[in-house]
Structure prediction request, 83 residues.
Amino acid sequence: MRTSERLDRLPPYLFAELSRKIDEKKAAGVDVISLGIGDPDTPTPDLVVEALAQAGRDPGTHQYPSNKGRSEFREAVAAFYER
Prediction:
């Protein structure tokens, strides 16, 4: 299949390029810790999975927040930076 010249001029997809480089390093025997896409190599803790499930069942989370964000989040960020 041929692609258009316009498509041929596009740069490579960033994450495909990172994946190619990671594969090259691994093939060369390098122990690579990939931070490219964020695919964890350990299971998500049950506590986190349950918290996400609870949030998904809460109708209050079924909409976009205001552009300022949820008040709980803003308060948590403020408390974090006050430490």
Remarks:
- Residues 46-82 form one domain.
